[in-house]
Structures are given as C-alpha cells and as structure tokens.
Model the fold of this input.
Amino acid sequence: MSEGVPLKPVRQGIPFVISGPSGAGKTSILRRVLECDPGVRFSVSHTTRAPRSGEIEGQDYFFVAEERFRQLVDQDAFLEWADYQDNLYGTSREAVAGPTREGFDLILEVEVQGARQLRERGRGAVFVFLIPPSMDVLEQRLRSRGSDDEDVVRKRLERAREELREIHGYRYVVVNADMEQAVRDFLHIIAACRLEREKVLPLWSDMDFG
Ligand code: 5GP
Done:
C-alpha cells in the first residue's frame, strides 16, 4: 500500500432520527440533504396510508394494507411503529440494518412516538428535531398549502404544539427559517457525528492510540 493511502474504512452507518411538526419543512429539507451527501440514505418506512401523487413504492414508503402491517408487527419486524392520524407507520429492522451495515448513514423520518421507542432501544442513533421559526410561521405555512380547511389547520396546530413538547429528548435542533441554511445545518450535524472519536479510531486501527 502506498504511503498516505488510508486503510479501507469499514464503518457502521449512523442512524439520524428526524422529527418535527407537519409544516416544519422536513420532506423538502431531507430531500436536499440526500442530494448533497451521497453517503446518506433515506430509511424507507412501511405505512398503511394511501400513496400521494408522485410517491413511489419502495422509495418513499412501502405501502401495505393494515392486515399486512399487523402481521409484520406480530413477526417483530419493526424497530418502532406508531399510529399517526389514523394510519400506521413503521421502520422495519431491515430498513435500518441493510444500509448501516454497508456504511451508509441513514435518515429515519419518524414522528415523536416512534422516536421515543428508538430512544428507549438506545442503539446509538442521533436525534434531530426540526422546528419552524415561530408558531405564526407554522400557521402561515399550513394555511398556504391551501388544500386544508380551517378545522384541519387547527388540528395540525394543536398536534404541532403536542409534538414540540417532545423536543427535550432530541440532541440537536434545526430551525427552518431559511431552507438552505437548514440544509447546511443538517449536513454539519451529520459531518460532526462522523468525526466522533469512537467512530473514527476503529477505522485507523494500525495506529497505537494507547
Ligand atoms: P406522511 O404521511 O406525511 O408521509 O407522514 C406523517 C408522519 O409520519 C410524519 O411525521 C412522518 O415523519 C411520520 N413517519 C413516517 N415514517 C414513519 C415511521 O416509519 N415511523 C413513525 N413512527 N413515523 C413515521
């Protein structure tokens, strides 16, 4: 091996658990993060909700019937799962094990109940909460979607207030006041976590660190 060529890194990917209220901008920000960093993958969840237009099976979600979802629960196939607004959502063990084994860092976009389950399992995941800059901005964003009536907007705001109370269980907070800045913040969090001592040293094992 020529001098200066590193040992072939055999690293385990880091799971990043991202939560935040509906309207905080999770989907668009995470899409940009994935475009910017080829070392990051998106954990594809199972859900019983119907696909929205443009969503792709196996890429956005695995869309399954409730009976199938319940079967998977019985088989202990999920690391976490939750009932969110009358639909079931779950992260399968395989969705996380596959990419992280291959060394990809992984984004798990889960709501707060699922994040709580993952935290209790304590598997070295990094928890990041995305918030809008204010409740007023959140309300404007929810209204500007245009498709929801007053009652739906009010329920989403109520739900957002409940979700915000869970923020104390998260290590990092990204404020989405400016989308490009929020994307950079995410990329910085990912970059910093990759540089944690216990993640780096095993990759440079021919040196004696004492
Ligand atoms: P949506 O239906 O808008 O795609 O997602 C609704 C909510 O479900 C979002 O807050 C999203 O983060 C969450 N969610 C998506 N996948 C999962 C999952 O696998 N587990 C849990 N607990 N929540 C999820």
